[in-house]
Amino acid sequence: MKYRILGQTGLTVSEIGLGAFPISGVQQQADGTRSGWTGTDDQQSIALIHRAEELGVNLIDSAESYGDGHSEEVTGRALQGRRDRWVVATKVSPNRGLDSTASDLPAQAKKRIFEAAEGSLKRLQTDYIDVYQLHATPLEGAMPGVMEALATLREQGKIRWYGISTNNRGAIDTLRKLGDIHVLQIGYNLLEHDADDLLHFAKQQNIGTLIRVPLAKGMLTGKYFQSSELPQEDVRYERFNRPESIDAFKKLPQLNFLAENTGRTMVQAALRFVLDHPGTSCAIAGAKNSQQIEQNVAAIDVPPLTESERQKAFAIADTIGTPNWSAN
Questions:
Q1: Contacts of residue 299, Cβ cutoff 8 Å, sequence gap at least 6
Q2: 48-92: per-residue pLDDT in tens?
Q3: Cβ atoms of residues 126 and 120 within 8 Å
Q4: 159-165 and 183-187: which strand pairing?
Q5: Secondary structure of residue 206 in the 3-state scheme
Q6: In angstroms, rounded to a whole number, what is the distance separating the alpha carbons of residues 215 and 166?
Q7: 173 to 176, 183, 198, 209, 297: CA distances (angstroms)
Q8: Would you write out the chain's pLDDT as a tens digit for each of its 328 residues?
Q9: Residues labelled catalytic
Q10: What are the C-alpha distances in Å from 313 to residues 50, 166, 225, 316, 323?
């Protein structure tokens, strides 16, 4: 494994991280339906995390909303006795349950962040969270309360560093006027590469970056180049079956040139693209099993994309269109 420094945090993180959305599995929804990531079970997920550790992966990224906390619960179980070997990142939905018209919105927001953090700490079975991230842009009136709560949690030692998952530069600038932003989680991949400028900005400002959806929720793995069929209860089913997505899947095989006779698989080409950006600290790719994390980790040693390959891939991507996984 190769490692990089996560911006101003000083944390040493593996170039490939583990995205923990898939390990949330399929959960019962309030309306009685089942939805989530198909093809996983908890014991397999725990084995996946342990295998990732063996490969040198030391960052895992979860969220309170992943499986209504189930991803955090599985992560907590997997890390018992080995917590000190991992950089644990998770995310909070800052606007959940808030009344946007209330006069006490900042106070509501503070209470929301404090309670959410306690919930995540309990599910993760840990005393502290290394990187705590806002999973959405807070309501404008809630921003002061949110940033004050994050600073207080850090003072208390319950979180070490904090930031936001967004590609919205305006929101980032607004929040930075109210407090520190140590880490940005940015959506960026071969199909959705509009965040190039944002990544350069993060590099200039010494803000650590965690790159989400580097495989476009599986679209760039090659697995769906022939068929995009998924079970209806899979969280990706609706987006994969939109007309524009169906059309995109028909065009994806044009990207096979990145893997043919190059010493890379399609997965590794997609991850190598992300890792080669100077603004990238860590690429957090989701995985369901040990074989997938092994392939992800192998991306650190494959040849980088040439400039001609990059430009050809961009030209193809511009004609494909995507379900817009990077938007946040």
A1: 16, 264, 267, 268, 271, 272, 275, 283
A2: 999 999 999 999 999 999 999 999 999 999 999 999 999 999 999
A3: no
A4: parallel
A5: coil
A6: 17
A7: 5, 13, 11, 16, 33
A8: 999 999 999 999 999 999 999 998 877 776 667 777 778 899 999 999 999 999 999 999 999 999 999 999 999 999 999 999 999 999 999 999 988 888 899 999 999 999 999 999 999 999 999 999 999 999 999 999 999 999 999 999 999 999 999 999 999 999 999 999 999 999 999 999 999 999 999 999 999 999 999 999 888 988 776 666 778 888 888 878 888 888 888 889 999 999 999 999 999 999 999 999 999 999 999 999 999 999 999 999 999 999 999 999 999 998 887 677 777 6
A9: 66
A10: 34, 24, 15, 5, 17
**Are the C-beta atoms of residues 77 and 43 closer than 8 Å to each other?**
no
Q: What is the DSSP string of 17-42?
A: EEE-SGGG-EEE-TTS-EEE-SS--H
Q: Which amino acid is at 71?
A: S
pLDDT per residue as tens digits for the range 88-138: 999 999 999 988 888 899 999 999 999 999 999 999 999 999 999 999 999
CA dihedral 163, 168, 2, 267 (to 10 degrees): 130
Kindly report the CATH number that applies to the domain delimited by 3-320.
Answer: 3.20.20.100
Query: Rounded to 5 degrees, what are φ and ψ at 192?
Result: -130, 85
CA pseudo-torsion sign 74, 327, 165, 311: positive
106 in Cβ contact with 144 (< 8 Å): yes
The H-assigned helical ranges of 70-165 are 70-78, 105-124, 143-155
Give the DSSP H or E segment for 210.
strand 208-212
Q: Is the pTM of this model over 0.85?
A: yes
Give Cα separations from 232 to 68, 73, 240, 241 (angstroms).
19, 25, 10, 10
Give residue 215's Cα distance to chain centre: 11
As a whole number of angstroms, the distance between CA 100 and CA 96 comes to: 10
